[in-house]
Amino acid sequence: ARTAEEGMAAAAPAKGSSLLQPFWELASLDEEKRLAAGKQLIALVAASQGDSRVPCSDLQYVVKRLVRGLESHNNGARQGFATVLVEVLARFEMVDVGEVVRLAGELMEITGGMKGQEQRDVMFGRIFTYMCVVRSGRLQGAAVDPTVLTAMVDELVNFLRKKAYLRVICTETLVALIQQVDVTSFTRHVLPGLRPLLSVSLLDQGAAPALDGKKKPLAPHQAPPPPPPP
User: Fold this and answer.
1) What does the pLDDT look like over 174-227, one tens digit per residue?
2) Contacts of 80 (CB under 8 A, 6+ apart)
3) CA neighbor of 227 nearest in space, from 68, 154, 119, 82
4) What distance in Å separates the CA atoms of residue 230 and residue 151, rounded to the nearest whole number?
5) What CA–CA distances, in Å, run from 57 to 8, 46, 64, 67, 102?
6) Which of 12, 59, 108, 190: disulfide with 186, CB 3.0–4.6 Å?
7) Average pLDDT, the chain
């Protein structure tokens, strides 16, 4: 079977390509520079994509690089890359969000030999990918691939239960996801994955924040919450 990375496979732009420069600015601590770089990148991709309904090589390259960049904690990289990925997914509907979700798993694989910070970066990278998919609005409607919903919910719930410092961002991403899907999709593909959060034992431990949508969802430009003190 073809991997998501193969599905998004695209040779890197030629040396000197105008596509490369904006990525450096996306990691800037200066919000204005990040926004300017994002607009430039979107414009370049739009010019390359034209009216085609098949993702061009530049679009494939940009999506893959944006997803990969979400695991970086350097400067403003995660904020900048997430903001642009949301816009790319919202604007270029020919990009398969299922491929994006699978790509996150392939590019940011969690292994037993990882150090604490490496594992933390990978987990945040995958969560931010799901958050971008949700914030793009692409989960609305009955045409959503159910395997995508199931995969996202299962992993968000798993992270939420595993690490205390991931509870807030995972819960808020789940809330935003629930608000987008229709009743049928929620009942069949989302609710089963949420059942572990509804058990008495978890509620007693305070590990399952209420999924009531009352909190404001975490914006892509916000930094993730710090880990608890040792």
Assistant:
1) 999 999 998 988 999 999 999 888 764 444 444 444 444 444 444 444 444 555
2) 25, 26, 27, 28, 34, 37, 38, 69
3) 119
4) 31
5) 8, 12, 11, 16, 19
6) 190
7) 82
- What dihedral angle (degrees, nearest 10) is formed by the CA atoms of 43, 104, 126, 59? 0
CB proximity list for 220: less than 8 A, separation 6 or greater:
79, 82, 83, 85, 86, 128, 131, 132, 135
**Distance separating alpha carbons of residues 90 and 136, to the nearest angstrom:** 5
Q: Are 188 and 54 in contact (CB under 8 A)?
A: no
Residues with Cβ within 8 Å of residue 12, at least 6 apart in sequence: 61
Sign of CA dihedral 79, 30, 61, 142: positive
CA 11 centroid distance within chain: 23
**119 is written with which tokens?**
């594992």
